[in-house]
Protein backbone atom coordinates (compact mmCIF):
# COMPACT_ATOMS: atom_id res chain seq x y z
CA UNK A 1 0.00 0.00 0.00
CA UNK A 2 2.96 2.30 0.32
CA UNK A 3 4.04 4.89 -2.19
CA UNK A 4 5.49 8.36 -2.26
CA UNK A 5 3.66 11.36 -3.61
CA UNK A 6 5.28 12.85 -6.69
CA UNK A 7 7.57 15.84 -7.00
CA UNK A 8 11.15 16.26 -5.90
CA UNK A 9 10.24 19.15 -3.66
CA UNK A 10 12.54 21.91 -2.58
CA UNK A 11 13.64 22.32 0.51
CA UNK A 12 16.64 23.47 2.04
CA UNK A 13 16.87 25.69 5.04
CA UNK A 14 19.72 28.01 5.86
CA UNK A 15 22.20 27.36 8.61
CA UNK A 16 21.32 28.68 12.05
CA UNK A 17 22.29 32.26 12.73
CA UNK A 18 25.47 33.12 14.56
CA UNK A 19 25.15 33.62 18.29
CA UNK A 20 22.55 30.92 18.84
CA UNK A 21 23.02 28.61 21.82
CA UNK A 22 24.48 25.18 20.97
CA UNK A 23 21.23 23.36 21.78
CA UNK A 24 19.25 25.78 19.60
CA UNK A 25 21.76 25.33 16.78
CA UNK A 26 21.48 21.54 17.02
CA UNK A 27 17.68 21.62 16.94
CA UNK A 28 17.67 24.03 14.00
CA UNK A 29 20.20 22.04 11.98
CA UNK A 30 18.44 18.76 12.76
CA UNK A 31 15.06 20.15 11.64
CA UNK A 32 16.56 21.74 8.51
CA UNK A 33 18.27 18.52 7.47
CA UNK A 34 15.18 16.42 8.10
CA UNK A 35 13.01 18.91 6.22
CA UNK A 36 15.36 18.73 3.25
CA UNK A 37 15.20 14.92 3.17
CA UNK A 38 11.43 14.95 3.66
CA UNK A 39 10.80 17.27 0.74
CA UNK A 40 13.61 16.57 -1.71
CA UNK A 41 14.47 12.95 -0.97
CA UNK A 42 17.68 11.01 -0.27
CA UNK A 43 21.08 12.57 -0.93
CA UNK A 44 24.71 12.37 0.20
CA UNK A 45 26.22 14.08 3.22
CA UNK A 46 28.20 16.29 0.85
CA UNK A 47 24.99 17.46 -0.83
CA UNK A 48 23.42 18.17 2.56
CA UNK A 49 26.44 20.21 3.61
CA UNK A 50 26.35 22.23 0.40
CA UNK A 51 22.60 22.89 0.38
CA UNK A 52 22.28 23.67 4.08
CA UNK A 53 25.47 25.70 4.34
CA UNK A 54 26.93 23.53 7.10
CA UNK A 55 30.42 22.09 7.48
CA UNK A 56 31.14 18.37 7.25
CA UNK A 57 31.62 17.84 10.97
CA UNK A 58 28.24 19.41 11.73
CA UNK A 59 26.52 17.31 9.07
CA UNK A 60 28.20 14.20 10.46
CA UNK A 61 26.99 14.97 13.97
CA UNK A 62 23.43 15.64 12.84
CA UNK A 63 23.21 12.57 10.57
CA UNK A 64 24.77 10.32 13.21
CA UNK A 65 22.30 11.61 15.80
CA UNK A 66 19.31 11.04 13.55
CA UNK A 67 20.60 7.58 12.57
CA UNK A 68 21.05 6.62 16.22
CA UNK A 69 17.46 7.72 16.88
CA UNK A 70 16.24 5.60 13.94
CA UNK A 71 15.05 8.59 11.93
CA UNK A 72 17.45 8.16 8.99
CA UNK A 73 19.59 5.40 7.53
CA UNK A 74 22.51 5.38 5.11
CA UNK A 75 22.81 3.08 2.14
CA UNK A 76 24.79 2.54 -1.04
CA UNK A 77 22.88 4.06 -4.01
CA UNK A 78 21.13 1.56 -6.27
CA UNK A 79 22.73 3.14 -9.34
CA UNK A 80 26.48 3.75 -9.34
CA UNK A 81 28.23 6.27 -11.55
CA UNK A 82 31.95 6.14 -12.21
CA UNK A 83 34.73 4.22 -10.55
CA UNK A 84 35.65 4.18 -6.90
CA UNK A 85 33.65 3.78 -3.74
CA UNK A 86 30.21 5.42 -4.04
CA UNK A 87 29.08 7.96 -1.46
CA UNK A 88 26.42 6.73 0.93
CA UNK A 89 22.95 8.16 0.55
CA UNK A 90 21.11 9.50 3.60
CA UNK A 91 17.51 8.27 3.55
CA UNK A 92 14.62 9.18 5.86
CA UNK A 93 12.87 6.34 7.67
CA UNK A 94 9.19 6.89 6.79
CA UNK A 95 7.79 5.32 9.95
CA UNK A 96 10.02 7.37 12.27
CA UNK A 97 7.42 10.15 12.15
CA UNK A 98 3.90 9.64 10.83
CA UNK A 99 1.02 12.07 10.36
CA UNK A 100 -2.65 11.64 9.58
CA UNK A 101 -3.94 13.54 6.53
CA UNK A 102 -7.70 13.96 6.06
CA UNK A 103 -9.58 15.43 3.11
CA UNK A 104 -13.27 16.09 3.73
CA UNK A 105 -14.96 16.50 0.36
CA UNK A 106 -18.63 17.03 -0.43
CA UNK A 107 -19.23 13.43 -1.46
CA UNK A 108 -16.34 11.58 0.17
CA UNK A 109 -13.80 11.60 2.98
CA UNK A 110 -10.27 10.40 2.18
CA UNK A 111 -7.55 9.86 4.74
CA UNK A 112 -4.00 8.57 4.77
CA UNK A 113 -1.21 7.76 7.18
CA UNK A 114 1.87 9.44 5.73
CA UNK A 115 5.49 8.96 6.75
CA UNK A 116 8.57 11.15 6.39
CA UNK A 117 9.37 11.74 2.74
CA UNK A 118 5.69 11.83 1.81
CA UNK A 119 5.37 8.04 1.72
CA UNK A 120 1.77 6.88 1.99
CA UNK A 121 1.76 4.00 4.47
CA UNK A 122 -1.95 3.30 4.20
CA UNK A 123 -5.17 4.98 3.19
CA UNK A 124 -8.91 4.72 3.53
CA UNK A 125 -11.95 6.53 2.12
CA UNK A 126 -15.71 6.39 2.32
CA UNK A 127 -18.64 8.09 0.61
CA UNK A 128 -20.78 10.74 2.26
CA UNK A 129 -24.54 10.99 1.95
CA UNK A 130 -27.04 13.39 3.47
CA UNK A 131 -27.11 11.74 6.89
CA UNK A 132 -23.43 10.80 7.06
CA UNK A 133 -22.41 14.36 6.17
CA UNK A 134 -23.46 15.63 9.61
CA UNK A 135 -20.35 16.89 11.48
CA UNK A 136 -20.74 14.48 14.39
CA UNK A 137 -21.01 11.48 12.06
CA UNK A 138 -17.96 12.57 10.07
CA UNK A 139 -15.89 13.11 13.23
CA UNK A 140 -16.87 9.70 14.64
CA UNK A 141 -16.06 7.92 11.37
CA UNK A 142 -12.69 9.72 11.11
CA UNK A 143 -11.76 8.66 14.65
CA UNK A 144 -12.76 5.03 14.03
CA UNK A 145 -10.98 4.85 10.67
CA UNK A 146 -7.83 6.47 12.07
CA UNK A 147 -7.67 3.85 14.80
CA UNK A 148 -8.17 1.04 12.30
CA UNK A 149 -5.37 2.40 10.10
CA UNK A 150 -3.05 2.82 13.08
CA UNK A 151 -3.71 -0.75 14.23
CA UNK A 152 -3.32 -2.19 10.74
CA UNK A 153 -0.03 -0.39 10.13
CA UNK A 154 1.26 -0.58 13.72
CA UNK A 155 2.08 3.14 13.70
CA UNK A 156 0.98 6.16 15.69
CA UNK A 157 0.39 9.57 14.15
CA UNK A 158 2.11 12.52 15.80
CA UNK A 159 -0.25 15.07 14.33
CA UNK A 160 -3.10 15.49 11.90
CA UNK A 161 -4.41 18.03 9.43
CA UNK A 162 -7.80 18.29 7.76
CA UNK A 163 -8.83 19.83 4.46
CA UNK A 164 -12.35 21.30 4.40
CA UNK A 165 -14.22 23.02 1.54
CA UNK A 166 -15.22 26.04 3.59
CA UNK A 167 -14.27 29.16 5.53
CA UNK A 168 -11.88 28.05 8.26
CA UNK A 169 -10.34 30.00 11.15
CA UNK A 170 -6.75 28.83 11.12
CA UNK A 171 -6.10 29.71 14.79
CA UNK A 172 -8.17 26.83 16.10
CA UNK A 173 -9.69 25.00 13.12
CA UNK A 174 -13.16 26.47 13.61
CA UNK A 175 -15.25 26.01 10.45
CA UNK A 176 -17.48 29.06 10.14
CA UNK A 177 -19.21 27.86 7.03
CA UNK A 178 -18.89 24.98 4.57
CA UNK A 179 -22.04 25.49 2.47
CA UNK A 180 -21.68 22.47 0.20
CA UNK A 181 -21.37 20.25 3.28
CA UNK A 182 -24.21 22.03 5.07
CA UNK A 183 -21.87 22.93 7.96
CA UNK A 184 -21.94 26.12 10.00
CA UNK A 185 -20.00 27.00 13.17
CA UNK A 186 -18.30 23.63 13.67
CA UNK A 187 -15.39 23.48 16.14
CA UNK A 188 -13.74 20.81 14.01
CA UNK A 189 -10.16 21.28 15.20
CA UNK A 190 -11.07 21.07 18.89
CA UNK A 191 -13.50 18.18 18.49
CA UNK A 192 -11.14 16.07 16.39
CA UNK A 193 -8.21 16.87 18.68
CA UNK A 194 -10.22 15.52 21.61
CA UNK A 195 -11.12 12.21 19.97
CA UNK A 196 -7.80 11.65 18.15
CA UNK A 197 -5.69 12.82 21.12
CA UNK A 198 -3.10 14.44 18.88
CA UNK A 199 -2.64 18.02 17.63
CA UNK A 200 -5.06 18.73 14.76
CA UNK A 201 -4.90 21.57 12.25
CA UNK A 202 -7.74 22.46 9.89
CA UNK A 203 -7.46 24.51 6.70
CA UNK A 204 -9.42 25.45 3.61
CA UNK A 205 -9.09 22.81 0.91
CA UNK A 206 -7.83 25.14 -1.83
CA UNK A 207 -5.18 26.58 0.50
CA UNK A 208 -3.90 23.06 1.06
CA UNK A 209 -4.04 22.40 -2.67
CA UNK A 210 -1.72 25.36 -3.17
CA UNK A 211 0.63 24.05 -0.47
CA UNK A 212 0.70 20.61 -2.10
CA UNK A 213 1.52 22.04 -5.52
CA UNK A 214 4.22 24.26 -4.01
CA UNK A 215 5.95 21.40 -2.19
CA UNK A 216 5.36 18.35 -4.39
CA UNK A 217 3.54 19.36 -7.54
CA UNK A 218 3.57 21.60 -10.57
CA UNK A 219 4.61 24.67 -8.58
CA UNK A 220 7.78 23.31 -6.99
CA UNK A 221 10.35 26.09 -7.04
CA UNK A 222 7.70 28.75 -7.81
CA UNK A 223 7.34 31.45 -5.15
CA UNK A 224 4.23 33.16 -6.50
CA UNK A 225 1.33 30.95 -7.53
CA UNK A 226 -2.41 30.57 -7.41
CA UNK A 227 -4.12 27.18 -7.14
CA UNK A 228 -7.74 27.09 -8.31
CA UNK A 229 -9.94 24.06 -7.80
CA UNK A 230 -13.39 23.25 -9.12
CA UNK A 231 -15.66 20.90 -7.22
CA UNK A 232 -19.22 21.74 -6.28
CA UNK A 233 -17.79 25.21 -5.73
CA UNK A 234 -14.64 26.99 -6.82
CA UNK A 235 -11.87 27.89 -4.37
CA UNK A 236 -8.39 29.30 -4.53
CA UNK A 237 -5.16 29.17 -2.60
CA UNK A 238 -2.36 31.71 -2.97
CA UNK A 239 1.38 31.39 -2.31
CA UNK A 240 3.03 34.84 -2.34
CA UNK A 241 6.80 35.25 -2.03
CA UNK A 242 7.04 31.59 -1.03
CA UNK A 243 4.54 31.86 1.84
CA UNK A 244 0.80 31.11 2.04
CA UNK A 245 -1.39 34.20 1.79
CA UNK A 246 -3.95 33.75 4.55
CA UNK A 247 -5.46 37.14 5.32
CA UNK A 248 -7.15 38.00 8.60
CA UNK A 249 -7.47 34.88 10.80
CA UNK A 250 -6.89 32.72 7.73
CA UNK A 251 -9.93 33.88 5.79
CA UNK A 252 -8.69 34.17 2.23
CA UNK A 253 -9.15 32.33 -1.04
CA UNK A 254 -12.88 32.63 -1.78
CA UNK A 255 -12.00 33.25 -5.41
CA UNK A 256 -15.17 31.51 -6.54
CA UNK A 257 -17.19 34.44 -5.26
CA UNK A 258 -15.72 37.03 -7.56
CA UNK A 259 -18.72 38.49 -9.38
CA UNK A 260 -18.10 38.00 -13.09
CA UNK A 261 -21.68 38.21 -14.38
CA UNK A 262 -23.73 40.88 -12.57
CA UNK A 263 -27.37 39.87 -12.47
CA UNK A 264 -26.46 36.25 -13.25
CA UNK A 265 -27.44 33.09 -11.39
CA UNK A 266 -28.12 33.40 -7.67
CA UNK A 267 -25.28 32.12 -5.47
CA UNK A 268 -25.68 30.81 -1.92
CA UNK A 269 -23.28 33.53 -0.72
CA UNK A 270 -25.93 36.18 -1.40
CA UNK A 271 -24.55 37.52 -4.68
CA UNK A 272 -25.55 36.89 -8.25
CA UNK A 273 -23.19 35.91 -11.03
CA UNK A 274 -20.34 34.59 -8.88
CA UNK A 275 -17.54 32.91 -10.82
CA UNK A 276 -18.40 29.48 -9.41
CA UNK A 277 -21.95 29.74 -10.77
CA UNK A 278 -20.35 29.90 -14.24
CA UNK A 279 -17.44 27.43 -13.90
CA UNK A 280 -18.30 25.15 -10.96
CA UNK A 281 -19.45 21.54 -11.29
CA UNK A 282 -23.09 22.45 -11.95
CA UNK A 283 -22.07 24.90 -14.69
CA UNK A 284 -19.85 22.26 -16.29
CA UNK A 285 -22.76 19.79 -16.28
CA UNK A 286 -24.99 22.36 -17.95
CA UNK A 287 -22.34 23.05 -20.58
CA UNK A 288 -22.15 19.35 -21.38
CA UNK A 289 -25.93 19.00 -21.54
CA UNK A 290 -26.02 16.85 -18.39
CA UNK A 291 -28.28 17.18 -15.33
CA UNK A 292 -26.63 19.24 -12.58
CA UNK A 293 -26.64 16.25 -10.22
CA UNK A 294 -24.80 13.97 -12.67
CA UNK A 295 -22.27 11.74 -10.84
CA UNK A 296 -18.72 13.02 -10.95
CA UNK A 297 -17.42 9.96 -12.80
CA UNK A 298 -19.84 10.54 -15.67
CA UNK A 299 -18.82 14.20 -15.97
CA UNK A 300 -15.14 13.30 -16.04
CA UNK A 301 -15.71 10.53 -18.59
CA UNK A 302 -17.57 12.95 -20.84
CA UNK A 303 -14.70 15.43 -20.66
CA UNK A 304 -12.10 12.73 -21.26
CA UNK A 305 -13.94 11.68 -24.39
CA UNK A 306 -13.16 15.12 -25.81
CA UNK A 307 -9.45 14.95 -24.97
CA UNK A 308 -8.29 14.87 -28.60
CA UNK A 309 -10.93 17.19 -30.01
CA UNK A 310 -9.83 20.61 -31.32
CA UNK A 311 -11.11 23.80 -29.74
CA UNK A 312 -13.02 25.55 -31.04
CA UNK A 313 -14.69 22.78 -32.99
CA UNK A 314 -18.00 20.93 -33.34
CA UNK A 315 -17.25 18.39 -30.59
CA UNK A 316 -16.13 21.00 -28.05
CA UNK A 317 -18.66 23.69 -29.00
CA UNK A 318 -20.72 23.11 -25.81
CA UNK A 319 -17.69 24.29 -23.81
CA UNK A 320 -17.35 27.61 -25.65
CA UNK A 321 -19.20 29.70 -23.07
CA UNK A 322 -17.70 27.77 -20.16
CA UNK A 323 -14.18 28.50 -21.46
CA UNK A 324 -15.07 32.19 -21.83
CA UNK A 325 -16.15 32.48 -18.20
CA UNK A 326 -13.12 30.50 -17.01
CA UNK A 327 -10.82 32.89 -18.88
CA UNK A 328 -12.71 35.94 -17.62
CA UNK A 329 -12.25 34.94 -13.99
CA UNK A 330 -8.62 34.00 -14.50
CA UNK A 331 -7.86 37.39 -16.04
CA UNK A 332 -9.07 39.06 -12.82
CA UNK A 333 -7.16 36.61 -10.61
CA UNK A 334 -3.93 37.17 -12.56
CA UNK A 335 -4.33 40.94 -12.62
CA UNK A 336 -4.87 41.05 -8.85
CA UNK A 337 -2.26 38.52 -7.67
CA UNK A 338 0.39 38.62 -10.45
CA UNK A 339 1.46 34.98 -10.05
CA UNK A 340 4.17 33.24 -12.03
CA UNK A 341 1.91 30.21 -12.27
CA UNK A 342 -1.77 29.32 -12.03
CA UNK A 343 -2.49 25.64 -11.31
CA UNK A 344 -5.93 24.28 -12.19
CA UNK A 345 -7.06 21.44 -9.95
CA UNK A 346 -9.89 18.96 -9.35
CA UNK A 347 -12.47 18.96 -12.17
CA UNK A 348 -10.40 21.43 -14.19
CA UNK A 349 -7.77 18.70 -14.67
CA UNK A 350 -10.26 16.77 -16.82
CA UNK A 351 -10.79 19.65 -19.26
CA UNK A 352 -9.68 18.84 -22.82
CA UNK A 353 -6.12 20.12 -23.40
CA UNK A 354 -7.31 22.26 -26.31
CA UNK A 355 -9.73 24.06 -24.00
CA UNK A 356 -6.97 24.77 -21.49
CA UNK A 357 -4.74 26.02 -24.33
CA UNK A 358 -7.49 28.37 -25.48
CA UNK A 359 -8.04 29.71 -21.95
CA UNK A 360 -4.29 30.20 -21.52
CA UNK A 361 -4.12 32.21 -24.75
CA UNK A 362 -7.11 34.32 -23.72
CA UNK A 363 -5.55 35.17 -20.37
CA UNK A 364 -2.26 36.13 -22.01
CA UNK A 365 -4.08 38.41 -24.46
CA UNK A 366 -6.54 39.99 -22.01
CA UNK A 367 -4.46 40.35 -18.83
CA UNK A 368 -2.28 43.41 -18.50
CA UNK A 369 -0.19 41.71 -15.82
CA UNK A 370 0.26 38.53 -17.85
CA UNK A 371 1.56 40.54 -20.78
CA UNK A 372 3.90 42.48 -18.50
CA UNK A 373 5.53 39.33 -17.10
CA UNK A 374 5.81 37.63 -20.45
CA UNK A 375 2.85 35.30 -20.08
CA UNK A 376 1.62 33.80 -16.81
CA UNK A 377 1.89 30.02 -16.91
CA UNK A 378 -1.42 28.17 -16.62
CA UNK A 379 -1.16 24.42 -16.05
CA UNK A 380 -3.32 21.58 -14.77
CA UNK A 381 -2.36 19.83 -11.54
CA UNK A 382 -0.37 16.58 -11.75
CA UNK A 383 -1.61 15.63 -8.25
CA UNK A 384 -5.25 15.31 -9.30
CA UNK A 385 -7.67 14.29 -6.56
CA UNK A 386 -4.82 13.74 -4.10
CA UNK A 387 -3.81 17.42 -4.00
CA UNK A 388 -5.73 18.35 -0.84
CA UNK A 389 -4.65 15.15 0.92
CA UNK A 390 -1.01 15.86 0.05
CA UNK A 391 -1.43 19.42 1.33
CA UNK A 392 -2.97 18.21 4.58
CA UNK A 393 -0.01 15.88 5.15
CA UNK A 394 2.47 18.70 4.55
CA UNK A 395 0.60 20.99 6.95
CA UNK A 396 0.63 18.29 9.62
CA UNK A 397 4.36 17.72 9.13
CA UNK A 398 5.32 21.39 9.65
CA UNK A 399 5.44 21.19 13.48
CA UNK A 400 6.31 17.47 13.56
CA UNK A 401 9.61 17.68 11.66
CA UNK A 402 10.98 20.17 14.15
CA UNK A 403 10.20 17.88 17.06
CA UNK A 404 11.50 14.53 15.77
From TrEMBL:
Provide ranges: composition bias, Gly residues. 1-13
Could you tell me which residues belong to the region Disordered? Answer: 1-24
In Pfam terms, one family for this protein is ROK
Gene3D superfamilies the UniProt entry points to: 3.30.420.40, Winged helix-like DNA-binding domain superfamily/Winged helix DNA-binding domain
Cite the SUPFAM superfamilies for this sequence: Actin-like ATPase domain (SSF53067), Winged helix' DNA-binding domain (SSF46785)
UniProt similarity note: Belongs to the ROK (NagC/XylR) family.
Protein name, as recorded: ROK family transcriptional regulator
Q: Which organism is it from?
A: Pseudonocardia adelaidensis
Name the lineage: Bacteria, Bacillati, Actinomycetota, Actinomycetes, Pseudonocardiales
